[in-house]
Amino acid sequence: MQEDIRKDFLPLVSKTWWFMTWLTRISGMLLLLAAFLLILGLPVVISDKVVLFVVIAILYYPALAFGLYRFFLHQKKIRKRVVRKIRVDDQGIHYKRADGTTDHVLYQNLKKYCFSDEYDVSITPRNKIYVLWVNDGGSVAEVDFDGIEAGYSSYIGNLKALRRRYIQGIVYFRPDLHIDPLVYDVYYINPVDFTFDKKKYWTAFAQTFAILIVCCTVLGIIILGLVKWLF
Fold first, then answer.
1. What secondary structure letter does DSSP report for 108?
2. Phi then psi for 96, rounded to 5 degrees?
């Protein structure tokens, strides 16, 4: 039975969404260029005399050059560890990095760990999103499905499918582990066939949009009332 499941559990590899990749690259470069020009021209803005500008420039631009040097070194270090490809198969999830190394979070290494009283696989908030939380070989690990890596060289377009496949793999190959139902709710996964639950997603979207409209309307009424009261 297990062999049949493994045979049918086909590998899923990340795919680059080129439109978002180039959009993010161009936007990032424009923002960096604007920030660089703003920082570069700061002494000119704050100096009203030539002598003052020269004094500030002597101190400012060498410090700026050193800061940029450190920034590029940091970026170079980060780029070596960025994830270029994600693969989910019957063994687990594999992150292929720019430096040629590959990190894994394998199903066989997952252990029972009560994150929330009775569940071994749960979620945790990070930067306004939720990431999957597992016990990988005795230590807590965040299974990351971040859509963009540092350096803006690639934007992964099938992240939701990769996440669903990995959770499906936990259910198939580690049935002894208990998954928090919030995992299915947060990621809009149908726990029966592991497809994207469009109905639940659009229902949540409509509710959020309706709340936003109500809040904006109430705020608009309050502001309008204050304007009339003041004037």
1. G
2. -90, 120
